[in-house]
Amino acid sequence: MQLTGGKWTPHALSRTAATLMGSLKVSPHVIEKCLNHMEENRMIRTYQHAALFDERKDAFEKLGEKLAEISLVK
């Protein structure tokens, strides 16, 4: 997909992906996992190691569908 509208940095693309996932009702916790962010809460970081593979897969599929929809609008 061609990206227009200025300079797109990796951070800008991550932020846009997170914003779109949020608008698609993806759980904030799943969005954080998709972005590979480190858990801020030390207890959760230490004891909860769920990878959420299915949830992340669904989130990325929703994002892909939304990007495909956006790219068709001209």
From TrEMBL:
Keywords: DNA integration, DNA recombination. GO terms for molecular function: DNA binding. GO terms for biological process: DNA integration; DNA recombination. The keyword Transferase does not apply. PANTHER family: PROPHAGE INTEGRASE (PTHR30629), PROPHAGE INTEGRASE INTS-RELATED (PTHR30629:SF2). Belongs to the 'phage' integrase family. This is Integrase. It comes from Rhizobium hidalgonense.
